[in-house]
Amino acid sequence: MHKKLTILYIVSILTAAILITGCKPKAVAKENSEIQLAVFVPGVLAGSPTYEMMDKGVRKAAEEKAAEVKTVEGGFNQAEWKSQIMALASEKKYDIIVTSNPAMPEICREVKKIYTDQSFLILEGSKIENDTVSTFLFSHLELAYLHGYFAGLVTRSEMPGANSDLKIGLIAGQEYPEMNQKIRPGYLQGLQAAAAGAEVDFRVIGNWYDATKASDLAKSMFESGVDVILTIAGGANQGVISAAKEAGKYVLWYDADGYAIEPGTIIGSGIIREDIAAYEQTQLALRGELIEGSSVYVGVREGFIDFLTESDLYKSYVPEKVRLAQDKVIKQFKNGQLQLR
Amino acid sequence: MNPSEKKEFRLPPVFLILLLCIAAATGLILLLSNDPAEALYYFFPGIFSNRLYLGNFLNYSVLLSLTGLGIIIAFNAGSFNLGGEGQVYAGAICAIAAALKFPDLPSGAGIIMMTLCGTAAGALLAALSGIMKSRWQVNELISTFLLSAGITKVIDYLILGPLSNPDSYLITTGEIPLQYRLPPIIPPSHFNLSFLLVFILIPASYFYLHHSRGGYELRMIGYNREFARFGGLNLGMYDTAPLTVSGALHGLTGAIAVSGTYFAGILGFTFGLGWNGIAVAMIASRNPAYLLPAVLFFSWMTQGARVAVLQSDLSLELGNIIQGVLFLLISSQALRGLQKKRDPL
Fold first, then answer.
1. Residue B221 and residue B203: Cα distance in Å, rounded?
2. Predicted local distance difference test score (pLDDT) of residue B336
3. Angle between the A2-22 and B3-32 helix axes, to the nearest 10 degrees?
4. What CATH number did the domain enclosing B255 receive?
5. Listing from the earlier edge strand, what are the strands of the sheet with A266-272?
6. CA distance A178 to B270
7. Which of A28, A161, B168, B274 has the fewest CB neighbours in a 10 Å radius?
């Protein structure tokens, strides 16, 4: 028995020694390479087009300058994000940490208090006074307006899924300031412009992944006379789609090209060009021209927000009359006649 | 039962498990990483390379020690507390609610209030299972788990609704007042004075379990219920009290997690402390004396995985897979060890 024990101890100590000494050089070597960027994804890349766009944009800019990019997925547990960002900053090797999510500025500002030399660029982030992190904000008011306007046209139309009730839906993963102050009001405003007197049925899931609950909510909304739902619920969007498909109703896809996901059910899709934003801002940062605490606020006119009307699926499922009316309002935003900030 | 004899027979299998864990993690990394040297570096020695990692590792160890101790105490009395997750979460949310309700107390009083509220919440939750067990023979394995699963939903609701912070983009409660926060010892990590609790509670539990009459009775019930009944022990008391203490320790963990680490209740923020507490209790073969090494090992593995995911090319899922494999190894092997140990008595 004793012999066995001794052997075990020796083996384990040897293993530990090999592990601890054996794998160090690589990490040291890494610090010598020039510019390093980190992309922090608050969630996962797969299945979230906006984060994929951000990653793509940063990588494109980095490639031009031969900078290295490290993409880190933070997962869905919001409680972990701060310690993950803190850990990235603690390595002190990233020239800038790029991330995207309205919740990230408050986290990055906290981390910045400790690692004061670390620069941050946050897409989808709002600025505060005397900000320490760079933010880049898209006008959700305008994007939501476009969706609301389109939904108004649809609910008034003769489309097979549209009923006589002037009622449209909005499903959100959670209530957050952007949702309450920008998206909901913008959506309602757009709707009123297209179909005066129509109403919005607003529901909240409570998380960003529960597709079953999303499906239940959507079903009950369809039963109460809603014919088109704008869904902003991350992974739970799938539940809304399946409910809509079953009921023969419609879904609007918020901020990335969604037509191909479920042709005929997703009849409208907006887009936020996070890739362009990430690309341009990263370029600035790589040239050393991104000013700490800077903030940018853009909309349709600057080309960062759009409603996608060129897709063949859009053209085949949406009647021409609706499309023409939608084109008109998009044009008004593009030439600056309409602007919501 | 001769203690020295016990030691000789018990340590090797545990050691084997730990070795297996390290081997499994190494194997998986070699298999799944494109740059295994870097991933291995961050997985194993990486956490000692940086104050933040080291502090987080120690801080997590403190929290894990307390939940692990809670599991061990219940284990020894023959009760399985599977409701750790809910008890920690409940402790945390009660501590937060108390802090937000009375934000103007002096620092010490506030921290004590939070700690007491958290501990009481965890204790209450587990006591329910204990009472049901002693009164109506409701299996505590099921009742603790179900109660925990239920209360988790209630707490989620509280964080989403009544306690939510409308100014934050996170799904979170408001932050506790500044003076209620335990100051860090190794900034910027959150490692704080609460580690002293570990050095009080673990030895205290060890002496209670192994060197007191009450502890002897408690363990006797754990080993052989019928024998203990025959010996005239008060089974009802030992069905309720150890579970309650177990819950109290979990609640305490939740309260400390709030006052020392998170300062606010983000949805699901204590997740993992309950289940991992069971894992470390298993590695420690339900003996408080082995708890600390077991906790340090497990915490090293989990924090190593986190750092490796952040700094090397291991993806989030791979990190989780590795942790899952470790958990599986630990639970399967340790359970077998427990089984063996129970038979001869």
1. 21
2. 57
3. 30
4. 1.10.3470
5. A199-204, A167-172, A228-232, A250-253, A266-272, A305-307
6. 27
7. A28
B143-151: long-range contacts at Cβ-Cβ below 8 A with a sequence spacing of 24 or more? B143/B83, B144/B80, B144/B81, B144/B82, B144/B83, B144/B243, B145/B82, B145/B83, B147/B83, B147/B86, B148/B82, B148/B83, B148/B84, B148/B85, B148/B86, B148/B87, B148/B274, B149/B86, B150/B86, B151/B86, B151/B89, B151/B90, B151/B125
Backbone angles phi and psi of B137, in degrees to 5:
55, 35
> How many structural domains does chain B have?
1
The answer to whether the Cβ–Cβ distance between B310 and A87 falls below 8 Å is yes
From residue A230, give the alpha-carbon distance in Å to each of A155, A184, A241, A249, B286: 13, 10, 10, 12, 53
Domain span at residue B220? 3-342
Neighbour tally for B207: CB within 10 Å: 12
Residue A19: closest CA among chain B residues belongs to which residue? B44
Q: Is A66 exposed, middle or buried (0-12, 13-18, 19+ CB in 10 A)?
A: exposed
Smallest CA–CA distance, residue A102 to chain B, in Å, is 6
- CB-nearest partner of B41 from A24, A106, A176: A24
CA distances in angstroms from A92 to A74, A97, A115, A339, B297, listed in the order given: 19, 11, 8, 41, 27
pLDDT of amino acid A48: 82
Nearest to B180 by CA among B86, B277, B81, B255: B255
Q: Which CATH superfamily is domain A140-272+309-334 in?
A: Response regulator (3.40.50.2300)
Q: What is the dihedral of CA B27, B33, B35, B39, to 10 degrees?
A: -70
Q: Does domain A34-138+275-298 have CATH number 1.10.10.10?
A: no
Average pLDDT along chain B, 345 residues, taken 10 residues at a time: 47 71 87 88 88 94 97 94 97 97 95 97 96 93 95 94 88 94 93 96 96 93 90 89 97 97 94 92 89 92 88 83 81 57 46
Chain A and chain B share a number of CB contacts under 8 A equal to: 113
Mean pLDDT of chain A: 89
Query: Which one of A27, A44, A77 has the shortest CB-CB distance to B41?
Result: A27
Out of A12, A84, A115, name the one closest to residue B310 (CB). Answer: A84
Place of tokens 């981390």: A111
The pTM score is 0.84
> Contact A109/A295 with Cβ under 8 angstroms?
no
* All CATH 3.40.50.2300 domain ranges in chain A, comma separated: 34-138+275-298, 140-272+309-334
Quick one: pLDDT at residue B17?
Answer: 76
Average pLDDT over residues A154-160: 93
